[in-house]
Amino acid sequence: MSAQDPLFTENENPNLQRSLVEPRALLSTILSGAAWIAAMFASIPLFSVLYGLIVRGGHRLSLEVFTELPPAGFEEGGGFGNAIVGTLVTVGIGALISIPFGIMAAIFLGELEPNGKVAYAARFCAKTLTGLPSILAGVFAYAMVVLTTGTYSAPAAGVALALLMLPTVVLTAEEAMRMVSAPMKNAAYGMGCTRSQVVWKIVLPTALPGILTGVMLAVARAAGETAPLLFTALFSSYWFVENGKADLMTPIASLSVLIYNFSGMPYDNQIELAWTASLVLVMLVLLFNILARVLGRKKV
């Protein structure tokens, strides 16, 4: 609209910039400021925990704590290298069990029979498992694996962690697959693709960022669990690899159980190691969460 336009009048303001004194703009500014303040208050616990862990356990970070075994009693020094490896092994076993079954279940729920009775029952079970106390997962794995094999082991811990990881993988993967646009799938069907080809060539590659986000969140949760490992992996002060051979059917160390054990000891060295192990575990979980955020940025 120009000044020569008959609809233009001098009383109209051609300036389209928003004025902060307008009621809606003022309300928006106030709400935005309140949201920022709430976000900063919500981040205080996280940063306070990180600050406390860095102050109490950061000074013990060294190559020694990542390579040596936990000290006993009155010993000084030592580390928790076997606990780091044990955590990665148990979480890895849980991921190997939960991820394939979780993705296959999500394919069934999201693509094959999304509105069937079995699908509704499966979703209900998955949502129920999200609130399952972790100690019950440990009791289940203890009854099913430990009592059957007669020993605490890494596979028993993996089963317990897989039970906790499975619902997160299933629900997030199903939601990611549902977000794949219908026109894209219909175009593939129109070109003569079968249902399996659409799932493997269209749905899964497109939904991969969302699926990986769910996997990373499930792994982050499993890495910090303690109660299931007390019933399944127990603890060990030694490496599970001897003479180049790995024996997973023995008790295995983990960071969370080491923290639990060392934090109650009356020795300063073990308490300091517990703080350092807590810092390492928090950074490990934080790394998984950052990976989940990065992988989830790509929209399906």
From TrEMBL:
Cell compartment(s), UniProt: Cell inner membrane; Cell membrane
GO molecular function: phosphate transmembrane transporter activity
SUPFAM superfamilies with a match to the protein in the record: MetI-like
UniProt feature coiled coil, ranges: none
Keyword Membrane included in the entry's annotation: yes
Membrane-spanning parts: 25-54, 83-109, 129-150, 156-177, 198-220, 273-295
Keywords (A to Z) from UniProt: Cell membrane, Membrane, Phosphate transport, Transmembrane, Transmembrane helix, Transport
GO biological process: phosphate ion transmembrane transport
A single cellular component GO annotation: plasma membrane
Pfam families attached to this UniProt entry: BPD_transp_1
Keyword presence, Transmembrane: yes
UniProt membrane topology term: Multi-pass membrane protein
Domain ABC transmembrane type-1: 84-292
Predominant place of localization: membrane
Family from the record: Belongs to the binding-protein-dependent transport system permease family. CysTW subfamily.
Protein's name in the database: Phosphate transport system permease protein PstA
Lineage of origin: Bacteria, Pseudomonadati, Pseudomonadota, Gammaproteobacteria, Methylococcales
Gene: pstA
